[in-house]
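Posted in: Structural Biology > Protein-Ligand Complexes

Title: Requesting predicted complex, beta-D-glucopyranuronic acid in pocket

I'd be grateful if someone could produce the 3D structure tokens for the following input. Sequence and ligand are given below.
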Amino acid sequence: PPGYDLWLGYSEIEEPALLKEYQNTFKSIYFQNGNEMLHAAERELTTGIKKMLRKLPDFEKLRNSENTVVIAKKSNLESSLLKRLAFDFDQLGADGFVIKTVLFERKQVLIVTANEDIGILYGVFGLLNLMQQRESLKHIMLSDAPKVNIRMLNHWDNLDRTVERGYAGFSLWNWQKLPEYIDQRYIDYARANASIGINAVSLTNVNANALILTPAYLEKVQALAKVFRPYGIKIYLTARFSAPIEIGGLETADPLDLNVQNWWHGKVKEIYDYIPDFGGFLVKANSEGQPGPQNYGRSHVDGANMMAMALEPFGGNVIWRAFVYSEHDTSDRAKQAYTQFVPFDGKFRDNVLVQTKNGAIDFQPREPFHPMFGAMPKTPLMMEFQITQEYLGFSTHLVFLPKLFEEVLHSDTYSKGKGSTVAKVIAGSLNQKKLTGMAGVANIGTDLNWTGHPFAQANWYGFGRMAWDPYLDSETIANEWIKATYSQNPNFITAIKSMMLTSREAVVNYMNPLGLHHIFDTGHHYGPGPWVSELSRPEWNPVYYHKADEKGIGFNRTPSGSDATAQYAPELAKIFNDPKTCPEEYLLWFHHLPWDYKLKNGHTLWDGLALKYQQGVDQVKTMIVTWDDSKQYITPEQHNEVRMLLQIQLREAKWWRDACLLYFQTFSKQALPEGVNKPTKTLAYYKSLKFPFAPGIRPQWH
Ligand code: BDP
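-- Reply #1 --
Done. Output follows.
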């Protein structure tokens, strides 16, 4: 089916000179014999070469002088060859690899080597990627190693196979047919992840069901672990804090209760009997109704450390989420995670990571980076990005997320002076962290092309690449992905790359320009709902976030308001506090400003806001032109599916513009500036819309 192959399509090499070069290179391959992981790597190389070179490669199990390619661990290479390679293996760690062509006994030999099996697997994918990028291998010298330890997908999959905030069908995990039936999809999923270096997955929703920790499910999880193991992927499960009560028959889940502690120890031991390389637990506690240590008057540290102690003897980790805000706390929601967690810096056990969303609210089209990243030098902070597009148009809108990821990672926390970027915090280099990680909430489901929108595949791909190397730039990633997925044609690449790179700014413009945020319709988050005001908790209402009134619009987070800026380094707080120096893309995030406030370009705030909404719509129109102009380079089916999706995106961009502007106009009481299209419907019409078909909603919000 179209799109099923993802970026592993291995299209035929059409360029004759390069084809010839590759054919010469792959005359005789020595591939070190070995375990399941090496076999997986060898299988992948066979598939790739067969497809790209139209010919089955010649593999040798014994090293001989005819070999033109040698793929083996360092410990398996003869010393004369190692000498030729002249490479310092210490810099590779366990996961890194080197790909190098050397002159050996008067012949060119391409070597792929590493310290460990997993390095060989990544090296083979690295080699295949070079070929998909159509790079010459004649003088290749590439070494690469990941900069982050845990590179993880978080699935928000429920046990009934619905996916919270999932827009690409149902959950891949077929609990009914497991453990006996191994769907080919599990294998292809593992291949795709390994190809970009993802080495951990959490299978289940953070709004957890304790049943996943019972033997009936564990034997199924075990079967998945067996499929993922050769691809270097560890399984994590979400642990519901109240599991000792729900499946353990205890009366409490108090982390300081001895019976509770013993229960978790026993449970963890049981899990490791099924899955000896189990990764650990991902926990959402005391957040949005999930139980947690605070139910018993205990702290996040008490809860996390209790689980960490149970996992420690087995080498497992606790990933404790910092996405908390409380109904009892009336302070600005944006401040609450910091308030709850920063005092605990240095108090978590060594195998605890605190997983923090990229921004302080909730995966909005744009947020300033989360202030916790600059404030917990003694705690391994794991980044949580959302790959599934809950607030960015679901799987219907083309939005290239690596642009967003890059913006966050390149942000400067100033926590140790200028240049203290979030990327350095995540990679652990800023504060010498031993354990590092990055997680992405998966956008994957049973849809034939995995992600619903074909371009949403680029977000899975890009997330993996950036988890491997948080310093990578989004343009490089777009380039790689287009070539591996669609076409090698330079015209196509240039056009589509620029379309992808502007797509994120487009969605910000037509949904949440100038720092607006969380003005989505309730529950499902499909479409605009800036007028929503009657939900029980104030911070669930969009009016809480935009605070539009007769005088102006925006959330004052400066010292005269909620003072959330005080959670940033003083240098940064100073910049954010003054509307004149605050980057305009964060203006209404940090300030409540009058409708006639003058923007940098001379427009009033009202006019500027309206023009931004219009610009977003216009950018989508341009994307459509670009896509149509590129028709000749791809198949009609490929062209048509994205064309249809772009038409929906355009319609929805206009909907956002019109609904938001009509609503905000009731406060600004000003006409739309020239250049902004007149809405074709009334505000009452937009308010009346209902969406019983919106996918991915959490059941409790129906
Ligand atoms: C919000 C989602 C909700 C998740 C929550 C979380 O709307 O479905 O459960 O985040 O991350 O964005 O826990």
